[in-house]
Amino acid sequence: MNRPEIHRAVHEDMQAVRVSPALRRRALEAMRGKEVIQVKKKISMALVFALMAILLCTAALAAANRAGLLDFLSGIPRTFLPADASDYVESDVASFSQEDVHVNIRELFYDGRTARIVLDIVPHHSGALLLAPDSAVQDSWQNLITLPGEAVDEADTRTILDVYQEEENGYTSMFLVSVGTQDEADGSGSGWREFVLEEDGTLVCFIEETFQQDQPERDVTLTVFLTPYDDAAAQFDEQSCRRASMPLSLVSSAQETPDAAQASVPEDCFVSTEAVLYEDIGVRVDRVLMTVKPLEIYYSIEYTVVDREAYALTDDGLLFEFIDPDAPAEKEPWEQRLAEGPGGGEGAFPLDGDLDTAVHYRQEGTLALDEQADRYLLRAYDCWSKQRFDTHTFSMRPAAKQDTASSF
Hints:
19 strands
């Protein structure tokens, strides 16, 4: 193996090694002959191959230790994940490149309604610093390099700009990175993003998108945007934003799993047996629908305003919460709730008009998978004042196909 071959192999294999940017840069520069390393005798080829073997093993371990999809979900407070959650996660899905970065779609979960994707965004040059889309150069460096839910190093008070400008780190450029998905038929989903910068310069991105329609298969376009930092202007140059896109086909793991016979959670729907009047706030809950998916339970609460005057007391802030029937009464009201699923909690919207004229509403959210039950205790409350109102029990039965369509 000649010098150029060794240089190329080390450069490629160090892309995933978890070392500091400064150490990584020095190693590569030594291979290029830009840094003199004092040695007492010539390095043997056997030692070179041994060092490369170590690098290969380190690279493999680094890739395996990157933050994964379940790591991000586990950081959500009070979230339950089933033991077989990893069975529904697809690995090494696809990859693509543009002039500044290589994008590896490392993990993918899709249940027909929500897509969760983990991307490794790797800069082509070791001197490029990648930032999360909501980052500012004055933000704490620790916030960028710490996984959500993990403790930060309080002793490290540096800002992102401090680290970028420290000469020993070797940064020569900086990019603000954002990622989006688009379904041409169903529009873009609603969801959230999390990012963490790994020690080797890879920006790991977690995407969660919840779409309006439940579809077993879906074609989306995934786009990565990079906005460069203008050192002279001391700001990000939005006019020079670069982008790269690729089509991505999603197939629901709720219908198709790696081993369908062993899947512990089938997709089932349950519907409430009768409508219930909430007299205090002037609405009738017409239907509660529960859809069990591999990682959580999606719920839908449809209700009708029957007393406009009573309903107006909530100032359009009416929401419902699922209550643990065994929760002690002395607990705070929010502590009495059933645990939410990874997709999060409630959100209500009108179905037949605006907030001033609508009669029919729907609230949607998720519950943790281990909260599945034959009956649910549902309490109304005002999200503004936090005042609690009526509480009623809803018995559930298996839903027929006609039950899954909207009742309005």
